[in-house]
Design goal:
Shape: elongated
Helix content: 25-40%
Order of helices and strands: EHEHHEHEHEHEEHEEEHEHEHEHH
Structural class: alpha/beta
CATH architecture of the largest domain: 3-Layer(aba) Sandwich
Largest sheet: 6 strands, parallel
CATH topology of the largest domain: Rossmann fold
Number of domains: 2
Strand content: 15-25%
Number of strands: 13
CATH superfamily of the largest domain: P-loop containing nucleotide triphosphate hydrolases
Radius of gyration: 23 Å
CATH class of the largest domain: Alpha Beta
């Protein structure tokens, strides 16, 4: 029916997010969809497609160019939509050479960067009419004018269609409670509630003259980082929406706080590092975030449907 090949101008641009979101939206619309990834999968995206999102996945017999082309030819002859994720492990030149011999519609995922846009143009020229256009991902709230007044006209002058701009999504940089515990080398004092829930923000225990719950209520879906011997801060945090406690300095909270945490279904992670060092470790966590959670898929699918136009 149709083969859509998605490539990117670099790593960590959002290619897997886009492929998964497009596949999910098409499935919701009643289409028969299959997903694949060619030329290597060191990030384990295919496994996530299968296990996390329950997509219909089919891979070529090997990573050879010949087998990849056989797979694409197969889906050009079937009544399905195939979304093919091109690997970032090969260069743009290798993508172009491979795509010259297959029948597929091509999308390029990029970011709001004029330097990257300048590199996309020669690739687009070689792809010719197979290229449907580019999608600009991760546009921050401050880049809207830049995209509309600089990048948009730049692509238009190069005869490249901008099929959509996708706003930056904080939730895509989040990790689950379990992942945070693992990366901080913490131990669970309790696993109350959902340890697969996503943590979208972090707050540090300790506040000024305002009541603690007032400060903590400014964020939802959060982790609260606090010394284990601060029941006053912990009880204030428990009066707000939160996903996990990270107790620092290797100190366990009082039995009463443990009881209230269990009542509110808030898991407790204890780490040996102090609060400052823990915060420094937390600041590095986002770099390890992957597109690997059903909540991320649901959120991104909604964003993609509202911001990207794909004509199959």
């Amino acid at each position: 029916m149709s083969v859509l090949y998605v490539m990117a101008d670099g790593e960590s641009v959002g290619k897997t997010m886009l492929c998964a979101s497009l596949a999910n939206n098409l499935i919701q619309d009643g289409y028969d969809v299959v997903v694949a990834k060619l030329h290597g999968d060191s990030n384990g995206d295919i496994q996530r497609y299968k296990e996390k999102f329950s997509f219909n996945v089919e891979q070529p017999i090997s990573e050879s160019v010949a087998d990849a082309k056989i797979l694409i030819d197969k889906y050009n002859g079937e009544d399905k939509i195939a979304i093919i994720e091109g690997s970032s492990e090969i260069s743009a030149e290798e993508h172009v050479e491979f795509l010259s011999g297959v029948d597929a519609s091509i999308l390029i995922v990029t970011t709001a960067d004029i330097n990257k846009a300048e590199k996309v143009v020669p690739v687009a020229e070689k792809l010719s009419n197979k290229l449907k256009g580019v999608i600009i991902n991760g546009v921050s709230m401050y880049q809207g004018t830049y995209v509309s007044e600089v990048l948009g006209p730049f692509y238009e002058n190069a005869n490249i269609s901008v099929l959509g701009t996708v706003p930056e999504q904080r939730i895509l940089l989040s990790l689950s409670v379990n992942q945070i515990a693992d990366k901080l080398k913490g131990r669970f004092l309790s696993k109350n509630g959902d340890t697969e829930s996503l943590v979208e923000s972090f707050m540090v225990g300790g506040f000024g003259m305002d009541p603690g719950q007032y400060s903590f209520s400014t964020r939802t879906g959060k982790a609260v980082i606090v010394r284990g011997d601060r029941p006053d801060v912990q009880m204030s945090a428990l009066q707000t929406d939160m996903n996990v406690f990270i107790m620092t300095c290797g100190l366990e909270p009082t039995e009463y706080v443990q009881y209230e945490s269990a009542e509110e279904k808030v898991p407790i992670i204890v780490v040996d590092t102090n609060t400052l060092d823990t915060m420094e470790s937390v600041s590095e966590l986002q770099a390890s975030a992957q597109f690997d959670h059903v909540k991320k898929l649901k959120h991104s699918s909604h964003i993609i449907k509202g911001n990207v136009e794909i004509i199959l």
